[in-house]
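REVIEWER CHECKLIST
Item 1: Sequence provided? yes
Item 2: Single chain? yes
Item 3: Sequence as submitted:
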Amino acid sequence: MTTEPDRNVGLELLRTTEAAALAAARWVGRGDKEAGDQAAVDAMRVLLATVHMSGVIVIGEGEKDHAPMLYIGEAVGDGKGPETDVAVDPVEGTNLLAKGLPNSIAIVGLAPRGAMATFGPSFYMDKIAVGPEAAGKIDLDAPVTQNLEAVAAAKNGRVEELTVVVLDRPRNEDKIEAARQRGARVRLISDGDVAPSLMTALPGTGIDMVVGIGGTPEGILTACAMHGLGGEIQGRLAPQSDKEKEHIEAEGIDLNRKLSHRELVIGEDIFFAATGITQGDFLRGVEYTSDGVVTHSLVTRSRSGTWRVIESHHRWEKLVPISAVPYRAP
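Item 4: Structure as written out by the authors:
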């Protein structure tokens, strides 16, 4: 039994991440992460307003008092389409952008209203992410060594041939040491674990697993992507202070609950888009040409299991006169 293809909102979301990346690219390497982030936020807001949906930001840049960022609870879209949850990170890796380092990206995730898990004041999550081959074979509760062996077996390889990405933080030192002791290659990153998590599920990236405590919003965004990529992420809240733990418990959130990507974001109508800002390992950064700019993006759709890598060429002579976004430096 077949059905007529419905609308792919992911292609509309692509325009929002492209806009954010183009706006933020003016600030690459200029040492001002706040200005780069604000430029991306402003551009993303303009383009989100054109998407045919009645959306609400559930993963964003903070509560309403922190406006003009894309704040939690902000209405987005044209107000006429389906009711949706929207997760945004206009610049994942603001430090990477400011320093001109690789893998800064602009991200949007979308799901039906109520589908995305929200954890109130929880900022940190213990996570493990793998690609399709190892999906269903890893366990957040298992030791790092056991998960490495499971991934190696799933890929018909050896642990010594695996590359594991971990955020370089003191809180992750035990996982870093365990992976090294078992013989895996460990790549430490300073910021942004969405990009490497996506890389576990994409061919030719050389990344096999991501482990460690990182951001909770990044976990939700990765879950959106894994629905379409066929990989897996598991997570559990990991408060890093007594105050954070008290706030989470006051919200009635279970700190012991382990969640898969299918519980972090529920359903089959889930979309994800990301566009490279700085040059990356799987998404090229914004590239300037003699007459415009080139962007490189990833778009996923869970219902069809389709993911696309899209190269877009933008011509200044056409784009600048019709856009409300200041894409070019003054």
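Item 5: Key structural point noted by reviewer: Residues 1-5 have pLDDT under 50 and may be disordered.
Item 6: Recommendation: ____
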